[in-house]
Amino acid sequence: MRHFLYLLTVVAGLLVSASSFAQGSVKGKLVDATTQKPLYMATVTVFQAQDTSLVTYRLSAEDGSFKLPGLAPNKPYRILVSFSGYAVHRQPFQLKTDSLDIDLGVITLHPAATQLDEVLVIAERPPMVIRRDTVEFNANAFKTLPNAMVEDLLKKLPGVQVDKQGNIMVNGKRVNRILVDGKNFFGSDPKMASRNLPSNVIDKIQVTDDKDELLERGDDNLNNVGKVINLTFKKGVKKGLFGKAYGGGGSGINGGRYEGGAIANMFRDTLQVSLLGYTNNLNRPGFGWSDLMQTGGFNATAM
Protein backbone atom coordinates (compact mmCIF):
# COMPACT_ATOMS: atom_id res chain seq x y z
CA MET A 1 0.00 0.00 0.00
CA ARG A 2 2.85 2.31 0.91
CA HIS A 3 4.51 1.68 -2.46
CA PHE A 4 1.21 2.32 -4.23
CA LEU A 5 0.77 5.73 -2.54
CA TYR A 6 4.36 6.62 -3.36
CA LEU A 7 3.76 5.71 -7.01
CA LEU A 8 0.64 7.90 -7.10
CA THR A 9 2.61 10.79 -5.64
CA VAL A 10 5.32 10.42 -8.27
CA VAL A 11 2.79 10.21 -11.11
CA ALA A 12 0.93 13.28 -9.82
CA GLY A 13 4.20 15.21 -9.60
CA LEU A 14 5.11 14.27 -13.15
CA LEU A 15 1.70 15.38 -14.41
CA VAL A 16 1.98 18.72 -12.64
CA SER A 17 5.51 19.17 -13.97
CA ALA A 18 4.43 18.31 -17.52
CA SER A 19 1.53 20.75 -17.39
CA SER A 20 3.76 23.53 -16.04
CA PHE A 21 6.24 23.08 -18.92
CA ALA A 22 3.56 22.81 -21.60
CA GLN A 23 3.64 25.65 -24.10
CA GLY A 24 1.13 26.86 -26.61
CA SER A 25 0.76 29.52 -29.26
CA VAL A 26 -1.52 32.27 -30.52
CA LYS A 27 -2.15 32.97 -34.18
CA GLY A 28 -4.34 35.10 -36.41
CA LYS A 29 -4.45 37.17 -39.58
CA LEU A 30 -4.24 40.94 -40.07
CA VAL A 31 -6.22 42.74 -42.76
CA ASP A 32 -7.12 46.31 -43.64
CA ALA A 33 -10.59 47.16 -42.35
CA THR A 34 -11.53 48.99 -45.57
CA THR A 35 -9.90 47.01 -48.37
CA GLN A 36 -9.63 43.62 -46.59
CA LYS A 37 -6.11 43.31 -47.96
CA PRO A 38 -3.52 41.53 -45.76
CA LEU A 39 -1.06 43.65 -43.81
CA TYR A 40 2.56 42.61 -44.29
CA MET A 41 5.30 43.17 -41.66
CA ALA A 42 3.05 44.49 -38.91
CA THR A 43 4.51 44.13 -35.42
CA VAL A 44 2.65 41.64 -33.22
CA THR A 45 3.71 41.65 -29.56
CA VAL A 46 2.57 39.61 -26.56
CA PHE A 47 2.83 41.11 -23.06
CA GLN A 48 2.01 39.69 -19.67
CA ALA A 49 -1.27 41.30 -18.60
CA GLN A 50 -0.22 41.77 -14.97
CA ASP A 51 2.99 43.77 -15.35
CA THR A 52 3.08 44.47 -19.14
CA SER A 53 6.47 42.75 -19.43
CA LEU A 54 7.46 41.62 -22.92
CA VAL A 55 7.01 37.90 -23.66
CA THR A 56 7.60 37.57 -27.41
CA TYR A 57 6.94 39.26 -30.76
CA ARG A 58 6.84 38.54 -34.47
CA LEU A 59 6.23 40.28 -37.81
CA SER A 60 3.22 39.31 -39.88
CA ALA A 61 3.78 37.34 -43.08
CA GLU A 62 2.92 38.46 -46.62
CA ASP A 63 -0.59 37.02 -46.29
CA GLY A 64 -1.08 38.89 -43.00
CA SER A 65 -0.83 35.76 -40.87
CA PHE A 66 1.15 35.53 -37.64
CA LYS A 67 1.93 32.89 -35.01
CA LEU A 68 3.67 33.42 -31.67
CA PRO A 69 4.78 30.21 -29.89
CA GLY A 70 6.25 29.59 -26.44
CA LEU A 71 3.28 30.76 -24.35
CA ALA A 72 2.35 29.14 -21.03
CA PRO A 73 -1.23 28.11 -20.20
CA ASN A 74 -3.39 29.67 -17.47
CA LYS A 75 -1.60 33.01 -17.67
CA PRO A 76 -3.34 36.24 -18.70
CA TYR A 77 -1.72 37.80 -21.78
CA ARG A 78 -2.37 40.87 -23.89
CA ILE A 79 -1.59 41.02 -27.60
CA LEU A 80 -0.67 44.33 -29.21
CA VAL A 81 -0.67 44.87 -32.98
CA SER A 82 0.93 48.00 -34.44
CA PHE A 83 1.40 49.05 -38.04
CA SER A 84 2.45 52.41 -39.44
CA GLY A 85 -0.60 54.47 -40.37
CA TYR A 86 -3.07 52.29 -38.44
CA ALA A 87 -4.59 52.49 -34.99
CA VAL A 88 -3.10 50.13 -32.40
CA HIS A 89 -5.07 46.96 -31.69
CA ARG A 90 -5.05 45.42 -28.19
CA GLN A 91 -6.73 42.20 -27.14
CA PRO A 92 -6.50 40.09 -23.96
CA PHE A 93 -6.34 36.31 -24.18
CA GLN A 94 -5.41 33.26 -22.10
CA LEU A 95 -4.41 29.73 -23.08
CA LYS A 96 -5.98 26.75 -21.33
CA THR A 97 -4.31 23.49 -20.38
CA ASP A 98 -6.65 21.47 -22.59
CA SER A 99 -6.36 23.97 -25.47
CA LEU A 100 -2.80 25.23 -25.81
CA ASP A 101 -3.24 26.79 -29.26
CA ILE A 102 -5.64 29.69 -29.76
CA ASP A 103 -6.74 31.25 -33.04
CA LEU A 104 -7.81 34.90 -32.85
CA GLY A 105 -9.14 34.73 -36.40
CA VAL A 106 -9.12 37.75 -38.67
CA ILE A 107 -8.10 41.01 -36.96
CA THR A 108 -9.03 44.18 -38.83
CA LEU A 109 -6.90 47.29 -38.40
CA HIS A 110 -8.44 50.70 -39.00
CA PRO A 111 -6.44 53.56 -40.54
CA ALA A 112 -5.46 56.15 -37.95
CA ALA A 113 -6.86 59.63 -38.46
CA THR A 114 -3.68 61.15 -37.03
CA GLN A 115 -0.43 59.25 -36.80
CA LEU A 116 1.22 60.16 -33.50
CA ASP A 117 3.75 58.30 -31.38
CA GLU A 118 1.72 59.25 -28.31
CA VAL A 119 -1.07 56.95 -29.46
CA LEU A 120 0.94 54.02 -28.07
CA VAL A 121 0.95 53.42 -24.33
CA ILE A 122 4.51 53.79 -23.06
CA ALA A 123 4.34 50.57 -21.01
CA GLU A 124 3.32 48.61 -24.10
CA ARG A 125 5.54 50.02 -26.81
CA PRO A 126 6.22 47.38 -29.47
CA PRO A 127 9.84 46.17 -29.47
CA MET A 128 10.22 46.87 -33.19
CA VAL A 129 8.38 48.94 -35.79
CA ILE A 130 9.06 49.57 -39.47
CA ARG A 131 8.71 53.13 -40.75
CA ARG A 132 9.20 53.14 -44.51
CA ASP A 133 12.92 52.36 -45.03
CA THR A 134 13.83 52.45 -41.33
CA VAL A 135 13.65 49.64 -38.79
CA GLU A 136 13.24 51.05 -35.28
CA PHE A 137 13.92 49.06 -32.10
CA ASN A 138 12.67 50.05 -28.65
CA ALA A 139 15.74 49.73 -26.40
CA ASN A 140 13.68 49.24 -23.23
CA ALA A 141 12.26 45.98 -24.63
CA PHE A 142 15.70 44.33 -24.62
CA LYS A 143 17.08 43.88 -21.12
CA THR A 144 20.81 44.30 -20.47
CA LEU A 145 23.00 44.43 -17.37
CA PRO A 146 23.34 47.80 -15.58
CA ASN A 147 26.94 48.22 -16.78
CA ALA A 148 26.29 47.06 -20.36
CA MET A 149 27.46 49.01 -23.38
CA VAL A 150 25.64 49.62 -26.66
CA GLU A 151 27.47 46.64 -28.15
CA ASP A 152 25.76 44.35 -25.61
CA LEU A 153 22.39 45.84 -26.52
CA LEU A 154 22.98 45.37 -30.25
CA LYS A 155 23.73 41.67 -29.72
CA LYS A 156 20.17 41.17 -28.43
CA LEU A 157 18.47 42.70 -31.47
CA PRO A 158 17.09 40.28 -34.07
CA GLY A 159 19.07 40.29 -37.31
CA VAL A 160 22.09 42.03 -35.72
CA GLN A 161 25.43 40.24 -35.33
CA VAL A 162 28.53 41.56 -33.53
CA ASP A 163 31.80 39.62 -33.86
CA LYS A 164 34.70 39.47 -31.40
CA GLN A 165 36.42 42.43 -33.10
CA GLY A 166 33.30 44.57 -32.65
CA ASN A 167 32.29 44.62 -36.32
CA ILE A 168 28.52 44.97 -36.66
CA MET A 169 26.32 43.34 -39.30
CA VAL A 170 22.59 43.80 -39.86
CA ASN A 171 20.95 41.02 -41.88
CA GLY A 172 24.31 40.23 -43.46
CA LYS A 173 25.18 43.86 -44.30
CA ARG A 174 27.98 45.75 -42.57
CA VAL A 175 27.27 48.81 -40.44
CA ASN A 176 29.36 51.73 -41.73
CA ARG A 177 28.56 54.33 -39.09
CA ILE A 178 26.75 54.85 -35.81
CA LEU A 179 25.06 58.22 -35.40
CA VAL A 180 23.94 59.81 -32.14
CA ASP A 181 20.66 61.70 -32.47
CA GLY A 182 21.36 62.02 -36.19
CA LYS A 183 24.86 63.44 -35.75
CA ASN A 184 28.15 61.74 -36.64
CA PHE A 185 29.88 62.34 -33.30
CA PHE A 186 32.13 59.26 -33.41
CA GLY A 187 33.51 59.47 -36.94
CA SER A 188 33.62 56.50 -39.26
CA ASP A 189 34.37 53.75 -36.73
CA PRO A 190 31.14 52.23 -35.32
CA LYS A 191 33.09 50.55 -32.50
CA MET A 192 33.87 53.91 -30.90
CA ALA A 193 30.17 54.38 -30.21
CA SER A 194 29.19 50.77 -29.55
CA ARG A 195 32.00 50.18 -27.05
CA ASN A 196 31.92 53.54 -25.24
CA LEU A 197 28.23 54.45 -24.94
CA PRO A 198 26.29 52.87 -22.05
CA SER A 199 23.15 51.04 -23.13
CA ASN A 200 20.94 52.50 -20.38
CA VAL A 201 20.93 55.97 -22.00
CA ILE A 202 19.53 54.70 -25.32
CA ASP A 203 15.84 55.11 -26.13
CA LYS A 204 15.66 53.88 -29.75
CA ILE A 205 17.92 52.13 -32.26
CA GLN A 206 17.11 53.04 -35.86
CA VAL A 207 18.61 51.08 -38.75
CA THR A 208 18.54 52.36 -42.32
CA ASP A 209 20.49 52.07 -45.58
CA ASP A 210 23.63 54.18 -45.96
CA LYS A 211 22.42 56.80 -48.44
CA ASP A 212 25.84 58.51 -48.51
CA GLU A 213 27.48 55.31 -49.75
CA LEU A 214 24.71 54.98 -52.31
CA LEU A 215 25.55 58.44 -53.71
CA GLU A 216 29.27 57.71 -53.73
CA ARG A 217 28.80 54.48 -55.67
CA GLY A 218 26.32 55.98 -58.11
CA ASP A 219 24.38 52.73 -57.85
CA ASP A 220 20.63 52.51 -57.34
CA ASN A 221 20.80 48.98 -55.91
CA LEU A 222 20.34 49.14 -52.12
CA ASN A 223 21.64 45.59 -51.81
CA ASN A 224 25.15 46.85 -52.56
CA VAL A 225 25.40 49.36 -49.70
CA GLY A 226 25.87 49.02 -45.96
CA LYS A 227 23.75 50.16 -43.03
CA VAL A 228 23.71 53.14 -40.69
CA ILE A 229 22.56 52.91 -37.07
CA ASN A 230 21.15 55.99 -35.37
CA LEU A 231 20.94 55.98 -31.58
CA THR A 232 18.45 58.33 -29.93
CA PHE A 233 19.03 59.25 -26.31
CA LYS A 234 16.44 59.24 -23.57
CA LYS A 235 15.10 62.57 -22.40
CA GLY A 236 17.49 64.35 -20.10
CA VAL A 237 20.58 62.62 -21.52
CA LYS A 238 21.26 65.11 -24.30
CA LYS A 239 23.25 67.11 -21.75
CA GLY A 240 25.37 64.72 -19.77
CA LEU A 241 28.72 63.15 -19.04
CA PHE A 242 29.65 59.51 -19.46
CA GLY A 243 32.74 57.42 -20.03
CA LYS A 244 34.78 54.50 -18.77
CA ALA A 245 38.10 53.87 -17.03
CA TYR A 246 40.32 50.86 -16.52
CA GLY A 247 43.53 50.06 -14.70
CA GLY A 248 45.72 47.24 -13.52
CA GLY A 249 49.00 46.54 -11.85
CA GLY A 250 51.24 43.84 -10.48
CA SER A 251 54.70 42.98 -9.30
CA GLY A 252 57.46 41.35 -11.32
CA ILE A 253 61.13 40.55 -11.28
CA ASN A 254 62.10 44.06 -12.35
CA GLY A 255 59.63 45.82 -10.07
CA GLY A 256 55.99 46.82 -10.24
CA ARG A 257 54.09 47.22 -13.48
CA TYR A 258 50.96 49.26 -14.08
CA GLU A 259 48.66 50.36 -16.86
CA GLY A 260 45.60 52.59 -16.85
CA GLY A 261 43.40 54.60 -19.16
CA ALA A 262 40.17 56.56 -19.30
CA ILE A 263 37.83 58.22 -21.75
CA ALA A 264 35.15 60.78 -20.86
CA ASN A 265 32.57 62.23 -23.25
CA MET A 266 30.32 65.21 -22.69
CA PHE A 267 27.34 65.96 -24.94
CA ARG A 268 25.58 69.28 -24.95
CA ASP A 269 23.22 69.71 -27.90
CA THR A 270 25.57 69.82 -30.95
CA LEU A 271 28.77 70.10 -28.87
CA GLN A 272 30.90 67.08 -28.01
CA VAL A 273 33.96 67.16 -25.77
CA SER A 274 36.09 64.02 -25.36
CA LEU A 275 38.89 63.64 -22.80
CA LEU A 276 41.43 60.83 -23.18
CA GLY A 277 44.08 59.61 -20.78
CA TYR A 278 46.53 56.70 -20.83
CA THR A 279 49.59 55.78 -18.77
CA ASN A 280 51.82 52.71 -18.27
CA ASN A 281 55.35 51.58 -17.60
CA LEU A 282 55.12 48.63 -20.00
CA ASN A 283 56.77 50.46 -22.91
CA ARG A 284 53.47 50.51 -24.79
CA PRO A 285 52.57 53.43 -27.05
CA GLY A 286 49.66 55.66 -26.10
CA PHE A 287 47.16 57.25 -28.43
CA GLY A 288 48.27 58.02 -31.95
CA TRP A 289 46.84 60.71 -34.22
CA SER A 290 44.52 58.21 -35.90
CA ASP A 291 43.21 57.15 -32.48
CA LEU A 292 42.52 60.76 -31.57
CA MET A 293 40.74 61.34 -34.87
CA GLN A 294 38.45 58.37 -34.29
CA THR A 295 37.93 58.46 -30.53
CA GLY A 296 37.63 62.19 -30.25
CA GLY A 297 35.35 62.48 -33.22
CA PHE A 298 37.54 65.10 -34.90
CA ASN A 299 36.64 63.74 -38.31
CA ALA A 300 32.93 63.83 -37.51
CA THR A 301 30.58 65.88 -39.63
CA ALA A 302 27.43 67.56 -38.39
CA MET A 303 24.20 66.55 -40.02
Question: What does the model show?
Answer:
The protein has 303 residues and is mainly β. Among the domains are: 20-121, Immunoglobulin-like; 239-295, no CATH class. 15% of the residues lie in helices and 42% in strands. The protein contains five helices and 17 strands. It has helices at 2-21, 150-155, 190-194, 211-217, 289-295, and strands at residues 24-32, 43-48, 54-59, 65-71, 76-82, 89-94, 101-109, 128-131, 134-138, 160-162, 168-170, 173-180, 202-209, 227-233, 239-252, 255-268, 271-280. A seven-stranded mixed β-sheet has the order 8-9-13-14-12-11-10. A hairpin with a 2-residue loop joins strand 15 and strand 16 (255-268). The radius of gyration is 25 Å and the shape is globular. Mean pLDDT is 79; it is low at 4-20.
Structural class of the secondary structure composition? mainly beta
Mean pLDDT: 79
| Helix content estimate | 10-25%
CATH fold assignment of the domain at 20-121: Immunoglobulin-like
Q: What would the principal axes of the Cα set say about the shape?
A: globular
Helical run tally: 5
